[in-house]
Amino acid sequence: MLTCRDVAREASDYIDHAQPWHRRWRMAFHIFICFYCRRFLRHLRVTRAMTQQRGAEPASPQEVAQIVEHVCNHP
Ligand SMILES: [Zn+2]
């Protein structure tokens, strides 16, 4: 079973459909049962859409890791 931290770490790949099917299936199952990860993915999608509309630089892996750490520690 994946943890919330696993999902947060791979959320970007999940949104981009850049994972093997078995990993994606495990993520989908966790997201189905976990309110916090559903909320996190919804926020990530909205944030991405906003940055793409504004032509802003996407977050660096370090920035994403900081956000993940914050979300995982403050549900
Ligand atoms: Zn979760």
Q: What is the strand tally?
A: 0
What would the average pLDDT be, to the nearest integer?
Answer: 87
Distance between the termini: 19 Å
Bound molecule types: zinc ion
Low-confidence stretches: none
- Counting H and I runs of at least 4 residues, what is the number of helices? 4
CA radius of gyration = 12 Å
For the record, the count of structural domains works out to 1
Q: Which key features would you list for this structure?
A:
about 80 residues; mainly alpha; 4 helices; binds zinc ion
Can you describe this structure?
It is a single chain. It contains 4 helices and no strands. It is an all-alpha fold and 75 residues long. It has one domain. Helix 1 packs across helix 4 (61-73). It is globular. Residues 4, 7, 30, 34, 36-37 line the site of zinc ion.
Structure summarized in a few sentences:
By secondary structure, the chain is mainly α. The protein has helices at 4-15, 21-33, 35-54, 61-73. Zinc ion binds at residues 4, 7, 30, 34, 36-37.
Secondary structure topology:
Layout: H1 4-15, H2 21-33, H3 35-54, H4 61-73
The chain binds zinc ion.
